[in-house]
Amino acid sequence: MPLVLAALLLLLTACSGPFPQSVFAPRSDFSTDLDGLFKNIFWWAVGVFVIVETLLLIAIARFRARPGAAAPKPVHGHTALEIGWTLAPALILVFIAVPTMREIFATAGQAPDGALRVEVIGHQWWWEYRYPTLNISAYNELHIPVRAPIQLEMTSADVIHSFWVPRLGGKRDLIQGRTNRIAFRADSAGEYWGQCAEFCGASHANMRIRVIVQTDSTFQGWVDQQRAAPQAPAKGSPAEAGQQVFRRSPCIGCHTITGIAQGKVGPDLSHVGGRATIAGALFPNTTETLHHWIMNAPSLKPGALMPPQNLSPQDLDAVVAYLQSLK
Amino acid sequence: MAQVTHGHHTSMGLESRKMAFWAFIGSECLLFGSLISTYLVYKGRSLNGPYPHEILNIPFTSFSTFDLLMSSLAMVLALAAVQRGDMKQGKLWLLITALLGLVFLGGQFWEFSHFVHEGLGLTTNLFGSTFYVLTGTHGAHVTVGVIWLLTLWIQAMRGKLGPANALTVEITGLYWHFVDVVWIVIFTVVYLIQ
Amino acid sequence: MKSWLTTTDHKRIGLLYFWTAFGFFLIGGLEALIIRAQLARPAGLGVSAETFNQLFTMHGTTMVFLALMPLSAAFFNFIIPLQIGARDVAFPRLNAFSYWVFLLGGLFLNASFIAGPLFGADRLSVAPDAGWFGYANLTSRQFSPGPNVDFWLLGLQILGIASLAAGFNFIVTILNMRAPGLRMLRLPVFTWMTLVTQFLVITAFPVITVALVLLMFDRFFGTHFFVPAYGGDPILWQHLFWMFGHPEVYILILPAMGIVSEVLPTFSRKPLFGYTVIVYSGVVIAFLGWSVWSHHMFSTGLGPIADSVFAGTTMLIAIPTGVKIFNWIGTLWGGQIRFTTSLLFALAFIAMFIIGGLSGVTHASAPSDLQQTDTYYVVAHIHYVLFGGTILGLFSGIYYWWPKMTGRMLSEPLGKWHFWLTLIGMNLAFFPMHFSGLLGMPRRIYTYSPDLGVAGFNLASTIGAFIIGMATLIFFWNLLRTRSRPVDAPADPWGGATLEWAVPSPPPVYNFTVIPTVESRMPLWQTERHPPMTPLPERPPAPIHVPGGSWWPMFTAIGLPIMAIGALSHLIPVVLAGAAVVIVGIYRWAFEPFEM
């Protein structure tokens, strides 16, 4: 009894709150299919659970030893029962297997022709998105148009990662040397959260995903912005000073800003100012977080390859202003 | 070996040490099976040469295979001799088995040196890695077998091996024949089917 | 003391396994408590990511290889020869060797916690940190440069040798050393499940050995078996690992199922319902267990055909598993049930295993699994089957067989406390994990966003874990306090049916004064066709020769960690020295006069 109450209490607390990574709030065809399949299996499981646990409880309650009772009848088995309780589970499993097989093929990851292709490349511990048909790339925040078929083609630059945005569908792994695919259509605009779901080293916990599903026009606006050259800072502005600092700092060894630097180790920063998050979708993109991140990334994200930077406070302010200007 | 067997009654009628050894052989089948599977999975996936068809020498390896088969024959003769108490023949055939095993190992050593000379090292490509680990593991098993046979031979020379130890010689034979069979599989999979 | 170091007596070896495994169980539990303390709040406790990764790696590795398997081995050792009417196992020195290798392997693995300074690391601990399943290519030298993964792959190879040796030993023991009349289908179910388990051990462990050797070659000798840039495939590691890993989970659960199959009839005063079906379903599970391994890989992109096949085989294996559960309930039905602590744990085993088994069925559906795999939902599943299943089953066995092994009864009142706290604790710890997982919390993370909404569930899990901890301490106290009690347990405190209850508690060194002839599955009970077995004479009719001990098993075993230390330090002379110890040990062992 206490167990049941505890479970109910938990359930009640569960029913509140937005739960941004819940599998129970599907917002795509892929996740809706999976949700339906799970619910099917779940109710069969609940049924079996209730029947079997009840039988167990009845047995415990009814057959307690009573003092002076006769020895129990030595029953060794019952063939009809054995056949029955072998066939019944087998039948239930058929009801689970058929929709399963159907869904396996339906969700195998091949999108229809004309789908928007996005190449996803996993890095320790950030995400790179390339849109080959649109000639743009994005980093850590994946923008897609609503209701359009999307084809994710995923691989890794280093170790195995896994792309998981629960509201948009199940996960698939990113493996160097292979390409795995996810195909889906998002139902509604909005921001969807996920995170890497395959242990990938020190900051596996910190490799987060944001997917921004937009209306066609908003999406097109975003695409155009990514295509445009990074904004040149206004003369005399702190951002311009920041650009100078950037140019002479180790930053250029790892980061690309079109026209300024061609580093290939970390994410391209050409449009970092336009992103809502930084550091692998880990922190909101604010002046304060940018300061802390640049000063000492590994202290915030263990194992991060970006070493602590030795910048004077003015230089740091300037660089932050510069990055924020890169919309 | 000094463990005294009293001709214990066993539930299955099979000597316990022999049964244990068959279980061990079953286990070793999985070991070699995994290594052979790895070889097959990576077949044709080397990113650079040398490639198998460029470097494997079937005539030479056929001779090695024949040598190992003959050593199994010698082993059978050794066991038969020990079982009937003819220790003179037993010692001879045990030694011949071991020597034929050494010839096989010598051949492997020569072949590997030649391959390395031709540019196929352990880390050169996937073919090199899978080939050397597979055949190296087999070679290590042959080496253990040769040491085992020589130990028995020395025991026999000291007069400490006789028909009472036939079970030990039989188990040695089981091991030796198993190692030979594994070689036949390796030879077929690696050399013959390319 | 010396007699314990040289012992080849299965009963002593069983006790050695028990205490060593229990010690590792406590260590693994401590690792779990630190993990849970860290995860109770999103911001954590200040456990660093690196430390956390070591903790969950060692928790899994310790629990699977150093606690659960050896606790089962404690019972294989002590109980099997008694249940089959033998005086010892087939190869007593090999048996001792298995124990020493296990102990040394476990010490080697745990030494990594303090070995940092020896490797010039900037921290004390260089414990393995790539997960208990060590996926390539995270485990390559490039991405795991330190000695952590080396400790792991060398430690597991050592432990594998211990398990393999024991596997051969018990297969021969059970097949070849049965008392007269003890046909296979008269064997106690615990013995049957042990036999099936050992066949799984000797076939599955070579596969992980190969995987570990290939990884070792990559890390030490520069091969590229799992390095994608040179054509290697990290998925090959997963296939090899899970071809071992899936049979391994049956290795973990079948002995506990065997225990439960002994305990239920005894405390229901009824024969086991469906004995033949339970035995055959165990055999079927072992065979089918080889066909399901890629259900651990549903998110790796195997393709729809492979996904379908493995989903199908995984669902199929639910059938023989479910059948056992029904037969256990059938055993209780119509019985006269006595609620001893041992029985309570057996009942809880059934109840908890049903939950774990059902969440397993949800995993079997490959697409559905894409929302569950690598999340806390799976953590819930594995702990329901491994804690709710294996561990509760082992506790049942401990309370059942403790009198036989030590001659003392465990306290029933303390046992009841242990039981209820464990049951409440485990459900509070693991049930919320179903929710944490489905609300988007992946596995193996040292921190999580407070916005996910899983903080409450995590806090509940942590409280539950600490309740388990308290319960375990009570249990530990129960065990310890029996050491000061008189050795007065009766030969058959529970009214058991099988041969171990025919000898004194604890048994004399030679087990049986006279090897009995067995005529039924329940030799000590009155059955429809047979009266109970006549009691054995108090003294043996003639002196029974019992082999003495031997130093060589332990001596040989020591060579293995020496070789591993040499490998770890890249010192070939040390490796050769270790090999020399092994070779000398084997020779002295082989030529030692040792009469059975």
Primary descriptors:
heterotrimer, B: 194 residues, mainly alpha, Four Helix Bundle (Hemerythrin (Met), subunit A), disordered N terminus, C: 596 residues, 0% strand
CATH architecture of chain B: Up-down Bundle
Largest sheet of chain B: none
| C-alpha end-to-end distance of chain A | 58 Å
Largest interface: A-C, 97 and 100 residues
N-to-C series of helices and strands of chain B: HHHHHH
Specify the CATH class of chain B: Mainly Alpha
Q: What would the average pLDDT of chain B be, to the nearest integer?
A: 94
Beta percentage of chain A is: 15-25%
Radius of gyration of chain A: 27 Å
What's the total count of β strands of chain A?
Answer: 14
How much helical structure, as a percent, in the residues of chain B? over 70%
Number of helices of chain A: 9
Shape verdict of chain A: elongated
* Oligomerization: heterotrimer
SSE arrangement of chain A, N to C: HHHEEEEEEEEEEHHHEEEEHHH
Explain what the structure shows:
The complex is a heterotrimer of chains A (327), B (194) and C (596). Chain A is built from nine helices and 14 strands. Chain A has helices at residues 2-14, 29-62, 79-106, 216-227, 238-248, 251-254, 287-295, 297-300, 313-325; strands at 116-123, 126-131, 136-139, 141-145, 149-156, 161-163, 172-174, 180-185, 190-195, 208-214, 256-257, 261-262, 277-278, 283-284. A five-stranded mixed beta sheet of chain A has the order 3-2-1-5-8. In chain A, strands 4-10-9 form a three-stranded mixed beta sheet. A two-stranded antiparallel sheet of chain A has the order 6-7. The longest helix of chain A has 34 residues, at 29-62. Chain B starts with 15 loop residues before the first helix and ends with a helix. Chain B has one domain: Up-down Bundle (Four Helix Bundle (Hemerythrin (Met), subunit A)). In chain B, helix 3 (58-83) runs antiparallel to helix 4, helix 3 (58-83) packs antiparallel against helix 6 (166-192) and helix 4 (87-117) packs antiparallel against helix 5. The radius of gyration of chain C is 24 Å and the shape is globular. The mean pLDDT of chain C is 97. Chains in contact: A-C, B-C. At the A-C interface, helix 1, helix 2, helix 3 and strand 9 of A face helix 3, helix 7, helix 8, helix 9 and helix 10 of C.
